[in-house]
Amino acid sequence: MKHVSILVPNGHYSLVNIEGTYQIFSWVNNFLQATNRQPLFNLHLVGASRSMTQTNGLFTINPNLLINEVSQTDLIIIPAIHGDVQHNLRMNAQLVPWIVNHYHRGAEVVSLCIGSFFLAATGLLNGRPCSTHWQFAQEFKRQFPEVILKDHKIVTEADGIYTSGGAYSFTNLLMYLIEKYGDRELAVMASKAFMIDIERSSQSPFTVFMGQKAHQDEVVLEAQEFIEQNFSDKITVEKLSQQVRVGRRTLERRFKRATSNTIAEYMQRVKMEAAKKELESGVKTVSEVMYDVGYVDVKAFRDVFKKVAGLSPVEYRNKYSSKILKMKKEKEKLAV
């Protein structure tokens, strides 16, 4: 059996990550025992003290092991910890060397959702791929430039370190681990028991581009506003630099530094976000949406849309348009 240490940190930890991991891995053990096989996981809730209460006071977890009582472990699970990273590090100062020490002694390490921020602060992610909640991707890039962020991914793995995308996508990482430590059949059974889409690999369809405006560069903010108000037009970098009264090279440099995107990338993301909203309404055809956001080449629009959203425009409309879904339901009723 693998010794699993599910960390219960100080601060506003994710109860869902902790309880969900314990519940799903416990189900695996019970299923294996019911079919006359050995359980896979030796589960422990591990903390710095015997009672760990969320900072909002709503929930308290009582770890069954303290970190200094764990002499050897095979798998460390880091849940999401909300709030300021530096504050969380100060509150959990004992956990950082504990995680690093056990990793170097052979333990594998998992971060769930924004637990990646805490894991990155240990230095173990430097030079390695990592995912996190898409909503915090830009902040993650700013704080940890040495980490290779793959924010479109639901699961990353490198050198015994695993990370998951945002929110409930952590369940996909759990299925991945069950298959890795058990087998495919076991993972499929677990996915069916908890109704988890085992094949989901990208969080791109769930991403909402909100613009990177948490900076103080007034010129870049003006450029962003101009792009967002005129996204259907053909905007060149030269025209944009004239609009904000700054030289082209200076604008490109400042724009990249402030938003982590090139101007071309930002224009593309704004256009695709507008296209997603149009497709969700289900009122217009894909071709009409394409023209509305300034594209004339069907293949180019489809390729860019799929790269950003993880689905083709037709697939995206069929999945998220309330109008299309309503039509499907009416057809199903008629068929019955």
Automatic annotation (TrEMBL):
User: What does the UniProt keyword field contain?
Assistant: Transcription, Transcription regulation
Please give the name of this protein: AraC family transcriptional regulator
Signal peptide: which range, if any? Answer: none
Q: Which PROSITE patterns match?
A: HTH_ARAC_FAMILY_2 (PS01124)
Q: What Pfam families has UniProt attached to this entry?
A: DJ-1_PfpI (PF01965), HTH_18 (PF12833)
- Please provide, alphabetically and separated by semicolons, the GO molecular function terms listed in this UniProt record: DNA-binding transcription factor activity; sequence-specific DNA binding
Look up keyword Transcription and say if it applies: yes
Instruction: Please list the residue ranges annotated as the HTH araC/xylS-type domain.
Output: 221-319
